[in-house]
């Protein structure tokens, strides 16, 4: 993973060059404090007293450890955002390690607050994203896809639906860099069919132009989150 550690630095430096989705910091750093210490929430995190900040506030360990892909999707996401690394607060970047078993899938999802740059370290992935609705109603949403090999980087624009699937016969490993301390994730199938409470089946049946019994079946399934 020596190459991977260098790659993390590259991804984070690229994210810092781009305009991050988060507000610019007004001080050198703002170490995040847990939300449960306060009765109110803010857009971000409360800052730790600078005089109490230690080096460990800027450290995350364990990204070299493979995630457990023994699940329904065959994928594991090890996130390193402000919730895992308080020193990221107000800095506008975060990252994640993604492990894929053979044919493992990171299903269609979006990051509402960040662009993602994905670097493949090992294996082979088929990745892609779909554009937002075109202005011309006669046009369709456009799909951009690519097969990635180790060393390849692919960018998923902020907010657009995207996916990755391991098309190889061995495990795949990737590092993702994000332009936000907390990019967020909306897994499409989970949000649509696994919400709590459930979306009225009549709404979904009409939206997807299928019979209501198909929606009932889909809403009855277990929809795991990949990250």
From TrEMBL:
Residues annotated to bind oxalate: 106, 111, 116
GO molecular function: manganese ion binding
Subcellular location: Secreted, Extracellular space, Apoplast
Gene Ontology CC terms, in alphabetical order: apoplast
Pfam family, one: Cupin_1
Chain residues that bind Mn(2+): 109, 111, 116, 162
Superkingdom field: Eukaryota
Domain Cupin type-1: 61-216
Family matches, as InterPro entries: Cupin_1, Germin, RmlC-like_jellyroll, RmlC_Cupin_sf
First and last residue of the signal peptide: 1-20
Broad class of where this protein is predominantly found: secreted
The entry's keywords: Apoplast, Disulfide bond, Manganese, Metal-binding, Secreted, Signal
Bridged cysteine pairs (disulfide): 30-47
UniProt similarity note: Belongs to the germin family.
Protein name per Swiss-Prot or TrEMBL: Germin-like protein
Native source species: Salvia divinorum (Maria pastora)
